[in-house]
Amino acid sequence: MRLARSTNIGPVSFRKMLDQFGTARLAIEALPDIVGQAKGSRKIELAGREETIAEIEAAKACKAKPVIFGDPEYPELLARIDDAPAYFYAIGNLELLGKTAVGIVGARNASATGCGFARKLSHELVSAGYVVVSGMARGIDGAAHAAAMQCAGKDTGGTIAVLGGGVDVVYPREHQDLYSQLCEQGCVISEMPPGLKPQARHFPRRNRIISGLSYGVIIVEAGRNSGSLITARFAGEQGRDVFAVPGSPTDPRASGPNSLIRDGAILCDSADVVLDTIRQAEQNNYLSEEIHAFTREPSAKPNGSSSPRYAEILSSLERDAISEDEKKAEQPIEINELSSCADTEINPIEDTEKLFDLLSSSPLLVDELIRTSDLPAEQVSTILIELELAGRVERHPGNRVSRIAK
């Protein structure tokens, strides 16, 4: 836990270090050498023992169980994504983590028709024995969770809620009853420390877990700047199926799913479409192969930078790094809509503005943007997600991106 919570060590770096050193203790002992070879001004500060113990006690107080990468309860599909959380907390029925899951996400300001269709999909999927994963947000998410619990039973599936804040923090507040039901009848999980209030920057990270748990993700109503489209993009990058529910071209909430269908997503007009596709995916050899596991055997500390694994660790640090200044600047906020609060996520850092200045209203290939900006591909991808959430850029077919005209 100390290694995973250390400043600028993210999920990718954590796994690289465990692969190389075998134990977290040896990885921690090697940190001075790693810091000495790391380029740039980013600092790595090891999480303190007192704050780690305080996190453990907070988890015990809310009866949250830590599920660590490599544990039997850790979901196999989630373990396959590159940036799977080192550990997360869970409250409720942990058996649901081992069942085949399908994500259902969509607009917070959803229409009655959209919520009704989400409930229908959720009910039929859970009745067929599958688990519905969502984010416990207003609108589509809440409708999917509620319908799943109505038909959940011994011979059916269930539902898992992935939270943006701590596993014990209810957001939005009006979902207190839904949260209580999820803790009793379903499962609630979060990679954040207990007690942490949700912030805008947490939601894209949360979305990768929703898609990472799922064989496929269904998008039901989503505006052009909706965070649900980020979940769909993560699903595509993770090799999962993306389903989109079509809607009227005059309804802004249908613009997201309609564009996904235009770009190759599976048109979803019934649960049968999802069930047929997921049942085929369950037979996929890639998804059914043995999951990655650490050797658990202590490894010798590498000498200098000669080890190829050492280079991988240094590269992963660049990918995972979050500056300490950004962390200190974060303040808990009330979130009404992900798109409306996303401006608080964007910090006026030099690289973000540099990238934005290179864009115009004419779509530009992301590969060309990477070459022109001279920034790492992973960093460009992260900045574009942040800018998209802030409503400053939009995606186009063919992996192109442009500014949104004001």
Automatic annotation (TrEMBL):
Question: What keywords tag this UniProt record?
Answer: DNA-binding
- Which InterPro entries did the record assign? DprA, DprA_WH, DrpA_SLOG, WH-like_DNA-bd_sf
Q: Does the keyword DNA-binding apply?
A: yes
Question: What is the species of this protein?
Answer: Thalassospira profundimaris
Where is each Smf/DprA SLOG domain found?
67-277
What is the top-level taxon of the source organism?
Bacteria
Pfam families assigned = DNA_processg_A, DprA_N, WHD_DprA
Q: Please name the GO terms that the record assigns under molecular function.
A: DNA binding
Which GO terms fall under biological process for this protein? Answer: DNA-mediated transformation
Q: Which protein is depicted?
A: DNA-binding protein
Domain named DprA winged helix is located at 350-399
Record-stated family: Belongs to the DprA/Smf family.
